[in-house]
Amino acid sequence: FTLEQDMRKALVNDEFILEYQPRVDTKTGKILSAEALLRWSHPEWGRVSPLEFIPVAEESGFIINIGEYVIRKVCRQLFDWKEKGLSIVPISVNISPLSFLKNSLVSMIKEALDEYHLEAELIEIELTESSLINYSENVISVLKELGSMGVKIALDDFGTGYSSITQLKNYKFDVLKIDKTFIQAMDKTAEDAIITANLIQLAHGLNMKVVAEGVETFEQFYSLRKNECDQIQGYLFSKPIPPSSFEQKLLIGS
Ligand code: G
Ligand code: G
Ligand code: MN
Ligand code: NA
Q1: EAL domain spans which residues (predicted)?
Q2: Which residues line ion ligand 3, judged by CB < 5 Å?
Q3: Cys-Cys link to 116, which of 79, 140, 204, 232 (CB 3.0-4.6 A)?
């Protein structure tokens, strides 16, 4: 056996599931969107973390299949929620740079949106800045195509790559997600608090919405609110939760 073979089986046998982590408005606490996070429930090993299987999938290229699976699953989920009369919110999806190198990414997303009668604004793509470094030009041209369709693009894990600020010149991202390492150090070191406050200003100056990731404490939350961070995502508000639990939250809106 290999992890690789098991992953291929898992996709066919529907062993992959998605959880949703809400992103809330810092001022009102209202749910504005959610990030879809993949989970694998293996028949023998139980839950396998994406930290274990995503790198293996990237190595083999199978991550492209996973990306398509996640996009389609999210679109179908949004369709189902809409059918039930829920007021749906945009969902963000982590897409590997390898998917961007495949010509079919744009048409795959377009087809999934069409099949489920969804507006492109309901899907946001999260791209890590490290992924932009290696494949820059190809990725940027695909981002532009997606952007002109109406798909929103977020720059994920911001601040952890080698040339963070430079990436902001290459594409007009809709959303900047400040990496959780800054957020979690905010109430410990003055430097992290200052960096975070200034990243928020920088992003606003470039017309981006700012999301703080990994918010776990009220101190972090108050400080982010004071610094006009637009949205927060983190355990303080909610862990990634199964679709049925997210559905309950959509019903009450926060
Ligand atoms: O909750 P967490 O342990 O879910 O996720 C761990 C890592 O796996 C994160 O870096 C996250 O971006 C990544 N990840 C989670 N779901 C997906 C997915 O559907 N696709 C890709 N490419 N990465 C994912
Ligand atoms: O895509 P990205 O690499 O940003 O993945 C987000 C990761 O952060 C996921 O593994 C998710 O489960 C995790 N996460 C989300 N909220 C929190 C939090 O408040 N604290 C910590 N430590 N991790 C979080
Ligand atoms: Mn992410
Ligand atoms: Na991140």
Answers
A1: 1-254
A2: 94, 126, 156
A3: 79
